[in-house]
Each structure stands twice: as C-alpha cells, then as structure tokens.
C-alpha cells in the first residue's frame, strides 16, 4: 500500500484511474522519482493521467505502461516543457514522451521509470 504522506506535492486523488474503478496503484519508486523531478523543476506539476487499470488502458489504446504504476502524464507546455524535460532527465526518467503541438491545454509530457532493451527512451506523439 502506498504511503502518500511521503510525497509532499502529490495526492492519491491525482493518480486515480479515469474509468471510475477508483484504483491508484502507483509504485513508490516511481512516485519518489516524480517527487524528485518536481523538486528539481521547482513548480507545481499537474498530473493528467496517472494510474490506468489494464481495461481502461486497453480501451483508450494505451501502450500498457500506466497499468504498471510506473508512469504519469503531466500538463506542460511552452518554456515549462523545456524545464520539465531537464528535470526529468536529471532524475533519470527512463521513458519521456512529448506532445507539444496543438492547443496549449492539450500539451503534455509522459514520464516513466521503466527500461528494457526494446523500449524507447524518448518519443513524440502525433
């Protein structure tokens, strides 16, 4: 069970699956790394998608990373995306996906701490 009191800038509610199942099965190593990134970034981070149950992730065409509890998407755009990217690299986030086109309120950055021989380190979204 996750001890949310360890993460000064995050709450369980921010990471609850959007399908309504109520799950927020985040893993503490990832949350610690995300908190560290937030500390380096020195600005609030808005989580737009944290935990996704496997059924919801499949329904929206996810890649299966969010159900592991080791990933989050955060709202970020403009100059802030550059600064957040620096913070993510500084804390050794292993997966970084960027969507920095289209309407400002739809721009985001995916962060995760998973690795593997066939897993991309960075990518962009169409």
Set down the secondary structure blueprint:
Elements: H1 28-41, E1 46-49, H2 54-59, E2 71-75, H3 79-90, E3 95-99, E4 108-112, E5 122-124
Parallel strand pairs: 3-5
Antiparallel strand pairs: 1-2, 2-4, 3-4
Helix pairs in contact: 1-3
Please provide a written account of the structure:
By secondary structure, the protein is α+β, with helices and mostly antiparallel strands. The chain has a domain at about 15-100. Helices cover about 25% and strands about 15% of the residues. The chain has three helices and five strands, in the order αβαβαβββ. It has a five-stranded mixed beta sheet, covered by helices on one side.
Summed up:
This protein is of the alpha+beta class. The chain has helices at 28-41, 54-59, 79-90, and strands at residues 46-49, 71-75, 95-99, 108-112, 122-124.
The percent of residues in helical segments reads 25-40%
Give the strand order of the largest sheet, numbering strands 1, 2, ... along the chain.
1-2-4-3-5
Tally of strands: 5
Sketch the major β-sheet. Answer: 5 strands, mixed
Roughly how many Å apart are the termini?
36 Å
SSE topology string: HEHEHEEE
Counted by DSSP, the helix tally is 3
Q: What's the shape? A: globular
Over all CA atoms, what is the radius of gyration?
14 Å
Mean pLDDT: 97
Tell me the strand percentage band. Answer: 15-25%
Contiguous low-pLDDT stretches (5 residues minimum) are: none
Observed structural traits:
126 residues, alpha+beta, 5-stranded mixed β-sheet, 3 helices, 5 strands, 25% helix, 17% strand
């Amino acid at each position: 069970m996750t001890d949310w009191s360890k993460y000064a800038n995050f709450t369980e509610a921010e990471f609850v699956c959007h399908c309504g199942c109520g799950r927020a099965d985040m893993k503490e190593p990832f949350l610690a790394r995300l908190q560290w990134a937030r500390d380096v970034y020195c600005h609030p981070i808005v989580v737009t998608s944290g935990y996704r149950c496997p059924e919801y992730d499949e329904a929206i065409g996810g890649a299966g990373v969010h159900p592991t509890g080791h990933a989050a998407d955060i709202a970020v755009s403009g100059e802030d995306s550059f600064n957040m990217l620096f913070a993510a690299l500084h804390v050794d986030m292993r997966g970084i996906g960027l969507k920095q086109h289209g309407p400002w309120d739809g721009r985001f950055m995916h962060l995760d701490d998973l690795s593997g021989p066939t897993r991309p380190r960075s990518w962009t979204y169409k």
